[in-house]
Automatic annotation (TrEMBL):
<keyword id="KW-0520">NAD</keyword>
<keyword id="KW-0472">Membrane</keyword>
<protein>
    <submittedName>
        <fullName>Nucleotide sugar dehydrogenase</fullName>
    </submittedName>
</protein>
<keyword id="KW-0812">Transmembrane</keyword>
<dbReference type="GO" id="GO:0051287">
    <property type="term" value="F:NAD binding"/>
</dbReference>
<dbReference type="InterPro" id="IPR001732">
    <property type="entry name" value="UDP-Glc/GDP-Man_DH_N"/>
</dbReference>
<dbReference type="GO" id="GO:0016628">
    <property type="term" value="F:oxidoreductase activity, acting on the CH-CH group of donors, NAD or NADP as acceptor"/>
</dbReference>
<dbReference type="Pfam" id="PF03721">
    <property type="entry name" value="UDPG_MGDP_dh_N"/>
</dbReference>
<dbReference type="InterPro" id="IPR036291">
    <property type="entry name" value="NAD(P)-bd_dom_sf"/>
</dbReference>
<dbReference type="GO" id="GO:0000271">
    <property type="term" value="P:polysaccharide biosynthetic process"/>
</dbReference>
<keyword id="KW-0560">Oxidoreductase</keyword>
<dbReference type="GO" id="GO:0016616">
    <property type="term" value="F:oxidoreductase activity, acting on the CH-OH group of donors, NAD or NADP as acceptor"/>
</dbReference>
<dbReference type="InterPro" id="IPR014027">
    <property type="entry name" value="UDP-Glc/GDP-Man_DH_C"/>
</dbReference>
<keyword id="KW-1133">Transmembrane helix</keyword>
<dbReference type="Pfam" id="PF03720">
    <property type="entry name" value="UDPG_MGDP_dh_C"/>
</dbReference>
<feature type="domain" description="UDP-glucose/GDP-mannose dehydrogenase C-terminal">
    <location>
        <begin position="322"/>
        <end position="422"/>
    </location>
</feature>
<dbReference type="InterPro" id="IPR008927">
    <property type="entry name" value="6-PGluconate_DH-like_C_sf"/>
</dbReference>
């Protein structure tokens, strides 16, 4: 007989991986039921036990208010739980192939704690099939239990947007799925208890996996189109933003903007699907073309700034450039896969002396991840060019004249994000 699913009132949750996705989820569940947050990083666990969150997604008050929530780095404590939600990273390796090491390791951890009737739900972004082809065999091996008879599995992708105060976990419709109709209903009810926006129950785990990965691919490809247009309009001596503003007056013109595409989602997830496509001998031309275009935007920004410097009859090798912003997006400290580093690298290849300033970002992390020493307080009047790379509010609120204070007389101001008036800057994407 199939093992019965946990009863709603006897659900003891564990969240495995307490990052941008896992922590808000742990807090939401911890407000209403016993929830154990587990992470392999003891420093992360200690900081959360002190009610501090360095990702800034959750406030100390919200952490305190989650009365049912406890944190641990000890996997032994997971055996008290009966529902495990896995929210560990799914990065790519140096060859842009899915690196499933964290997911496999978290599955081993969950597998060792698994008992008859338990449920494991995956939230990490993967390709269709990964949960059942990669994770389930590990769960079976570690637990000695049989899938869909002794234990159940679900998949519910996360859609949060770090730094976004409007679209929060609770206010975004959640896609849910399960390995059997009963498991799907269980997973759906579990999330309905915290998601005020409601849920969408997908017909299978693979459908839910596919839905998540294509959400990000759709954005990536659309941004790539606009980036390609930006490269072309630059050659034609036209301002891309002006063209987009004009085209945007049509009701069905999509409002994508050119820019650097960084972060651990949009620039990474497409490779999960293209990997799966390769496995079945399918060539994903459009998706990979989009990736290529987007990955070329950092060097393009640097070359445009160099051109502007040369037009002033200066030589980039004798110039000091200030890059404002290193995080992969505005108003958040997340550095993962930031493509601002491509701008810096290309400028340095021209011999420019480049400083990077980002008050949101942890300086040690910038050094550790990218070997970049952040400048805490750039000197006023010191730079030949200033690049607004990330539109943090505190940069944008200075306006062009405030930003120009860091520059020498006649310094170049380049606006990667197109947030300043055209007339106040020397160039923009
Ligand atoms: N951050 C986002 O905006 C976002 C949005 C939607 C989906 N996702 C997806 O969610 C997943 C998690 O992303 P994230 O941004 O929260 O990652 P993250 O890097 O912020 O956090 C992951 C946490 O997992 C921990 N961890 C790693 N391996 C572990 C293991 N074996 N056992 C326990 N803990 C482990 C790490 O120490 C870290 O604290 C990824 O698949 C990502 O693509 C992220």
């Amino acid at each position: 007989m199939n093992a019965p699913l946990p009863h709603r009132d006897s659900t003891r949750l564990a969240i495995i991986g307490l990052g941008y996705v896992g922590l808000p989820l742990a807090v939401a569940f911890g407000r209403q039921r016993p929830t154990l947050g587990f992470d392999i990083n003891p420093a992360r666990v200690s900081e959360l036990q002190r009610h501090e969150d360095q990702t800034l997604e959750v406030t100390p008050d919200q952490l305190r208010a989650a009365a049912g929530l406890a944190f641990t780095a000890d996997p032994e404590r997971l055996s008290d739980c009966n529902v495990f939600i896995v929210t560990v990273p799914t990065p790519i390796d140096a060859y842009k192939r899915p690196d499933l090491t964290p997911l496999e390791s978290a599955s081993r951890t969950a597998g060792r704690a698994l008992k008859r009737g338990d449920v494991v739900v995956y939230e990490s972004t993967v390709y269709p099939g990964a949960t059942e082809e990669v994770c389930v065999p590990i769960l079976e091996r570690e637990s000695g239990l049989v899938f869909n008879r002794d234990f159940h599995v679900g998949y519910s992708p996360e859609r949060i947007n770090p730094g976004d105060r409007e679209h929060r976990l609770e206010t975004i419709t959640k896609v849910t799925s399960g390995s059997s109709p009963a498991a799907a209903d269980f997973v759906d009810a579990l999330y309905k208890s915290i998601i005020t926006a409601g849920t969408h129950q997908a017909s299978s785990i693979r459908v839910a996996e596919g839905a998540k990965v294509i959400e990000n691919i759709q954005r990536d490809v659309n941004i790539a189109l606009v980036n390609e247009l930006a490269l072309l309009f630059d050659r034609l001596g036209m301002d891309t933003q002006e063209v987009l503003a004009a085209a945007g007056t049509k009701w069905n013109f999509l409002p994508f903007r050119p820019g650097l595409v960084g972060g651990h989602c949009i620039g990474v997830d497409p490779y999960y699907l293209t990997h799966k496509a390769q496995q079945v001998g399918f060539h994903t031309d459009v998706i990979l073309a989009g990736r290529r275009t987007n990955d070329g935007m950092g060097p393009h920004v640097a070359r445009r700034v160099v051109r502007l410097i040369q037009q002033r009859e200066a030589h980039p090798a004798h110039c000091r450039v200030l890059v404002l912003g290193l995080a992969f997006k505005e108003n958040c400290p997340d550095l993962r896969n930031t493509r601002v580093v491509d701008v810096v690298e290309e400028l340095r290849a021209y011999g420019a002396d480049v400083d990077v300033h980002d008050p949101w970002v942890d300086a040690d992390q910038a050094m550790h991840e990218y070997g970049l020493r952040l400048v805490d307080a750039p000197e006023a009047g010191d730079y030949d060019a200033i690049i607004l790379a990330v539109a943090h509010d505190r940069f944008v609120s200075l306006g062009a004249s405030g930003l120009r204070r860091w520059g020498r007389e006649g310094a170049t101001l380049f606006d990667v994000k197109g947030v300043l008036p055209r007339a106040d800057v020397d160039g923009r994407l």
